[in-house]
């Protein structure tokens, strides 16, 4: 990201349009996944907005699916569902959208965050100066 | 590969870690082993298969003295992941083996670094007392860095094939940046492959995504690109962007010799078949029209897939198609279509490099099947009707 910012800065400094880096192929859709707590769990909202006209668009989240027909660029489609989460527990859900044969997904955790033990990293320096960050078994 | 030890005194100075082990006797010891990592193969449908271990080809291996954290010996694993140290030292000195995603070989100048810290990824085995022993390492998924070892392995393939695919070209330094949780996107910049490691979408096991970005590196160091970069999704777009992205996807297919581009994510992922898909241009529009990157990939694949699964009459190979990329670096482009390298310039280069014998097949592929109105007006001459 720092290189992209540098490129943008250089482009602006020279007064010319910034050149973006080549990205990987992606689905023609922006995806948002939101939640709000309700009694017994969460209400989850998946919003899909195609970036170009698409013949069909399919949304799925937490086991619920919804398919739409032709959707024009910028037209938001949404799927709202309720997910039961017991007090104190947490649950990870995936919101998935398929548009023009390609998908984009978002992961969200409902409830308390999962405790992930940070891995200790020991840095070693090779004789030629290269630095290695070691994770141990 | 054998490695001759540092001076005996070096280990004496740093080898006694003060643990319970009594001071050992001087000797020459052989430590051998195999480095492997957990891979998840691409299924060709977008998703990933079950975990399977593979040799960590060509990774850097160090022998570390625990007490001082000194690198006591170093070597490079062979293509089976095997390594050997032969060292002089004191028996029972506490040491361990460290495998890292870097190489000291001139033919494989690859580094895979943490995207935020830019430090090379490494995986350390258990501590053991110095002596003749076998120390195998498996970089498991749970380590959080097995994907870094997969990225390294994919780039080994790229480096190893450069002399064949681009005769006369030598390996050049290539660095990939990835780590678990990296949200900064997947893109190419300045000899660096930047790869997502997010929960939504991690590309460390997506070999074809890694190879797509390596295709942009090939354009950069061997060929030419005038792409403005940015987002792309297969729909018609700027011809220089479509050319660059279509070429990069084709390069990933050429490297795997399969016409499949596949990208996994938390929702399963998606795949694109460059052989069975048929994406068309507008026959009525000009040479500078916006086109799909998918159409570019399909044309390149069809030109190069002889003879194994060929369903067209162009008997090209990956070697011949990729040779045009090298040609484009210094080619004088026709002032036609759009400014900068695009599909038209590639097709011109194809006929300049290979003559006009493929004219009939190329017309069928380009003008009939994809309805792209290429004019066959290259300096190589006009194709016979």
Write a brief structural summary.
Chain A is mostly beta strands and 137 residues long. Chain A has 1 helix and 9 strands, in the order αβββββββββ.
Break the fold down into its secondary structure elements and pairings.
The complex is a heterodimer of chains A (137) and B (385).
Chain A: H1 2-13, E1 29-38, E2 41-50, E3 57-61, E4 64-68, E5 77-84, E6 91-99, E7 102-110, E8 121-125, E9 131-136
Antiparallel strand pairs in A: 1-2, 2-5, 3-4, 3-6, 6-7, 8-9
Chain B: H1 8-15, E1 26-39, E2 52-55, E3 60-65, E4 70-76, E5 82-90, E6 94-100, E7 110-113, E8 120-124, E9 128-129, E10 133-134, E11 137-139, H2 146-165, E12 174-177, E13 187-189, E14 192-194, H3 207-221, H4 239-256, E15 260-263, E16 270-273, H5 293-304, H6 318-328, H7 343-354, H8 359-369
Parallel strand pairs in B: 1-10, 1-11, 7-12, 12-14
Antiparallel strand pairs in B: 1-2, 1-5, 3-4, 3-6, 6-8, 6-9, 13-14, 15-16
Helix pairs in contact in B: 2-3, 3-4, 4-5, 5-6, 6-7
Describe the structure.
The complex is a heterodimer of chains A (137) and B (385). Chain A has 137 residues and is mainly β. Chain A has a domain at 25-110: Immunoglobulins (Immunoglobulin-like). Chain A has one helix and nine strands, in the order αβββββββββ. Chain A has one helix spanning 2-13, and strands at residues 29-38, 41-50, 57-61, 64-68, 77-84, 91-99, 102-110, 121-125, 131-136. In chain A, the strands form three sheets. A four-stranded antiparallel sheet of chain A has the order 4-3-6-7, with no helix packed on it. The longest helix of chain A is centred in the N-terminal third of the chain and has 12 residues, at 2-13. Chain A is flat and about 60 Å long. Residues 1-18 of chain A have low confidence and may be disordered. With 385 residues, chain B is α/β, with parallel strands linked by helices. Chain B folds into two domains: 8-103 and 122-140, Immunoglobulin-like (Sandwich); 225-385. Chain B has eight helices and 16 strands. Chain B has helices at residues 8-15, 146-165, 207-221, 239-256, 293-304, 318-328, 343-354, 359-369, and strands spanning 26-39, 52-55, 60-65, 70-76, 82-90, 94-100, 110-113, 120-124, 128-129, 133-134, 137-139, 174-177, 187-189, 192-194, 260-263, 270-273. In chain B, the strands form four sheets. In chain B, strands 1, 2, 5, 10 and 11 form a five-stranded mixed sheet that branches. In chain B, strand 13 and strand 14 (192-194) form a beta hairpin. In chain B, helix 2 packs across helix 3 (207-221) and helix 3 crosses helix 4 (239-256). Chain B is elongated and about 85 Å long. The relative contact order of chain B is 0.10. At the A-B interface, helix 1, strand 6, strand 7, strand 8 and strand 9 of A face strand 3, strand 6, strand 8, strand 13 and helix 3 of B. Strand 9 of chain A pairs parallel with strand 8 of chain B.
